[in-house]
Structure formats: structure tokens, C-alpha cells
Task: structure prediction
Amino acid sequence: MRIVFMGTSEFAVPSLRALAERHDVAAVVTRPDAQCGRGRRLQCPPVGSCGADLEIPVLTPEKLSAPEFLRELRGFDADLFFVAAFRILPPPVFTMPPKGTVNLHGSILPDYRGAAPIQWAVINGDTETGVTTFFIEETVDTGDIIFTERTRIDPDETAGELRLRLSEIGAGLAVRTVDAIEAGAAPRTGQPMTGGRPAPKLHKSDGLIDWSLDARIVHNRIRGMNPDPGSFTDWCRGPLKIHRTRVEDETSIGEPGMVAEASSSGGFTVYCGRGTVRIVELQPPGKRPMDSASFVRGYRLEAGVMLPRREECEE
Result:
């Protein structure tokens, strides 16, 4: 089948490679190069780099509704458009191919419609999630479902780790979906227009840790924010990034945000609204990530210290 593939992030790359091995991917559509990192250098999105490696024409339109882009897209004469981790498509795009436009979404629809389904599943402490393929319609993430593939979420798994696993599961589902459409055997199951938990985009400010929440909730939010947008707590030397934690206990009571226990060999724990979390990996301002035992040794952290404080640290 002749396909135009649309995507941006690493999540979409396994699906592009899998479809290119089995079908005729005529073109790849992705976002223009963007400035990234401290040096603000222009960087090609992962899908664009993958398309170039596969020697597939790569299109980087500024506006998906631009007449010149629509003419170019129409010229590929594709049977189907396949979308993964991309922008919202305007009707002139998703209605163009005769066999429709399919999206690969990182949740079990209709749950977690929106921009951050994988992160919210982890934040909410779900034990299961999956990927879904569906036909795109004008209302976001509401089109007829084709297939769903489910998988378990491990209790300490981060959103980044889960995203990587789901991208590989999604690649298999992408091939299965396109094969079924080509054979005229793709099921179509309608979705309810309402219901399901939302998955709005997360911002840097969402990463501020609220230590007054229960330990399990704090732990889930931290792993759901890893690697982006990241979690942090106020600290006397500046924002202290918290990359990984584990639930130490769920019953102890102390001042939320206070260091409950600290040792040079085992690291430290922090009181939450109920229970404590053990800090596994963190990153002081301007430093590299480190384990919490190294942090205790380097910054002479002791039990009883409040993390969320802005006054000068004692030398």
C-alpha cells in the first residue's frame, strides 16, 4: 500500500521503520527543524532524520493548510496517511487519501485523549495502558477504533521508559493495521464522544512537587514527569530536580518536604502528606544527575532539613 507517514518524535520512529519495510512509504511529513539544547542549534526531528536515512522524501511544512503543501501532498497519490505523534491535521489533509487517515495513539481510547496520554497514565498510577489505532475525524482522538494493544505498567516505570516500550508495541500495531486496511478487513468500532480521562499537555510548572500529597501520589507524579517536563522541588541553592524515587512507606507522618532520614550510604527519604519516598536520583542546579547517597555526602544533608526553602544554605 502507498502511504504518507506523518510524525515528529522518537515515539513514531519504530512505526515508520516497520511500515517502510512492508509497504511503499512515498513521503514523510514532519515539523521544520527547531532550535534545541543550550547551544540553540537547529536540529531535525527524529522522524525527519529517520525518513532521510530511509531515503524517503521529507516534507517540513510550516502550515499544514498551505495550498502549496496540499498540492505537493496530493502529488504523492497515497492510498493512506498514517500519523503518529504529530500535529492536529486540518480536514483538507486527513480527508485526502481514499482509504482515510489513521492515527497511532498512546492510550486505550477513549481514555486519555490529548497530547500527553502516556505521562498521565503513569501520573494517575494506572497499572495498564496500551496503544490504539483509529481513523482520524475532525474531533481530536474520537474516530472509529481499529485495533488496541494492551500492556502492563510497572510500579516504578517512568513515562520515558513506558513511551519507549509503547513505541515498539505501536510499530507492530501499525503494520497490523495497515495490512488489515489493505485487505479490506479493518474493523471500525465507534467511540463515545464523551467520557474517558483527559490527557492535556504538561508544562514545566506542573513539575513542582507538592510534598503534602501522599507518598504514592508524589512517586507517581515524579515518574510520570520523567524525562519531560521533569520534577523539581525548591531548595536553598535553586531548583532541585528529582528524577527517580521509590515509595519507602505509606503510613509514617512528618512535616511534608522534610528529610526523614539521611545516610552517606543509603541516601535520603522525604516526608510526604502520608508516608515517605526515597530519593533515588536527583540533580542539583548546574550539576549532573547523581544518586542520593552522593548528594548526602556532597551537601552534608541531614534528617530534619526542609527541602522546599529558599534561604541560603549553611556552609
Remarks:
- The chain is about 25% helix and 25% strand.
- The CA atoms of residues 282 and 288 lie 9 Å apart.
- The chain has a mean pLDDT of 95.
